Amino acid sequence: MEVTKETLLGFYETMVTIRTFEEKAMELFAAGYIPGFVHLYIGEEAVATGVCANLTERDFITSTHRGHGHLIAKGGKIDLMMAELMGKVTGYCKGKGGSMHIADVDLGILGANGIVGAGQPIAAGAAFACKYKKQDNVCVCFFGDGASNRGTFHEALNLASIFKLPVIYVCENNLYGISNCQRDHMNVSDISDRAASYGIPGVSVDGNDVMAVYEAAAEAVKRARKGEGPSMIECKTWRHRGHFEGDPGIYKNAKEQEAWIKKDPIIKLEKKLVEYEYAAEDELNAIKDAAKERIEAAVEFAKNSPDPEPEDVLRDVYAD
Ligand SMILES: Cc1ncc(C[n+]2csc(CCOP(=O)(O)OP(=O)(O)O)c2C)c(N)n1
Ligand SMILES: [Mg+2]
Prior knowledge:
Blueprint: H1 5-30, H2 45-52, E1 60-62, H3 68-73, H4 78-85, H5 119-132, E2 139-144, H6 151-162, E3 167-173, E4 176-177, E5 180-181, H7 182-185, E6 202-206, H8 210-225, E7 231-236, H9 254-262, H10 265-275, H11 281-303
Parallel strand pairs: 1-2, 2-3, 3-7, 6-7
Antiparallel strand pairs: 4-5
Helix pairs in contact: 1-2, 1-10, 1-11, 2-8, 4-11, 5-6
Bound molecules: thiamine diphosphate and magnesium ion.
C-alpha cells in the first residue's frame, strides 16, 4: 500500500503526542498530582495510531485500563483527559472517574475500562447497532493478551462471527498480563490462532511497526464496512513501564526488556522517515516540541481547574 509523506508524518505526530502525554502522566503521578492507578501505554503507541488512522468520528472503539493512547489516537481531548487524571471538575468525568473511565461518545470512544475483557462484548454490541441501523461504520475493540483468556472473549467473538458484525478485535500482545508472561498463561504463541475457533480471519503483525498495523487494520476495516464480518489482529508489542506506575516490573527479563526498548516504535518510524527523506532531524524535533507545548497547555489547564466540591459526590451517579 502506497503511504504518503503526510500520512507517515501524521502517524509520527500522533505517536509522539501519546508518548509525551504518557511521560508527563508518569512525572505527575510520581509528584502526587494523580490519584488512583495509572497504566501507561509507552512502547505500544504504534498500535492505537495505526488502527485509528483507518477510522472516522462515526466509528467506535472500546478501550482498556491502558487506554490513554487509544483515546488520543481516536481524537480524545488531551486537556479534558489530563484534568480527569488529576481529578478536576473540568475532566471528562468531572474528576470522578480517573484514567480508567474516560469516554467521549460523540467521538465514538465508548470508554476505557477497568474490567479486563469488558470491552469485548461492548464492541460486539456497538457493531450490532451499526449493522442493525444499516450504517457502514465499524467498531474496534482493543484488548490485551491477558484479556484473550477471558470468557468474554469467547462469547463476543462467537457472537460477532455468527452475526457477521462489523467489528475488529485488536489484541495488544505486550507479552504480559501484570507479572504473568504469555508462555505461563497460555499454550499458544500466536494469539491470532484463536480467531480460527470462531471462523474469523486472524493475523499477527509487528505491533511496533505502525505501517504493518495500519495495513492490517485497513484490510479488516474494509472487510467490516463491506458487511463481510469481523476480524482479529494480534499486534506483538511491549510495555516499557511496569504494569502500573509504582510497579518496578522486576518479573521482566532484563535482556528481553533491553531488546524490546531497541525496537521502540517511535525510533523505528523516525528511521523510516529519515531514510525516505520525508523529514530531517530538525523537523522531527519540531514535531516533538509542538507536542510538548500542547501537553504543557493541557497540564496548565488541569492544574488551574478546581477540585470537585464534596456535595457533588453523588451528582451524575444516579439517573433522574
Ligand atoms: C475481570 C478482571 N480480572 C482481573 C483484573 C485485574 N487485572 C487488571 S489488569 C490485568 C492484566 C491484564 O493483562 P492484559 O490483558 O494483557 O493487558 P495489559 O495490562 O498487558 O495491557 C488484570 C488481571 C481486572 N481488572 N478485571
Ligand atoms: Mg498484556
